[in-house]
Design a protein that fits this description.
two-stranded parallel ribbon, mainly alpha, two-stranded antiparallel ribbon, coiled coil, about 200 residues
Amino acid sequence: MHAAQIEKGGSVYREFSLLEIIEMECIKGRAFFSFYHNRVVGQHHASFTRHLGILVHDRNMCPLRVHSWTDIEEYKLQLMWEAVTDKFDSDNINDQRDHVLKHMRKLWNNWRGSMHKNIKSKELKGGNSSKAALLEKLNATVKENESLKGRLEGLESKYDELQSKYVQLAKIVFEQPSSPSSSDQQIESFNRLVY
């Protein structure tokens, strides 16, 4: 994330990204805090919790396509733990690994649940259709397609019939009658074609 500069009344203020805030709050690259009853306390407790949330939302760190936290491979958990220990330090941080990962699991489950809720609400509003509705639309489209094919075949047969009548009519009209009796025959054949 890039930081932005904002001008307010002649002064320029700089907005910092979350990662920059965490890095600024860290002392010598690593922020120090303590655990008290399995809770983070100290000056950097908010940065620590924020950093856990950022890690959980990062698809490169914490995979999104797994069904449960237990399906995440151990090396991914180790990478997440290393990302935590790179920024933060405590007297007994390694003893708190399981507790911190358990908290990250809770954050991850809440995040996944909120995403699922948003997707479901869109589906109920008509954003996405259910399988039954899609199947019904497909069946209606197939029936309409068959109906249109039947109408097209009927029109093609009428076209062929009219074309053959046109050819016969053109033959009658453009041939020169040689006798009056032949013109009566032509009129009679014309009437048969038309009626």
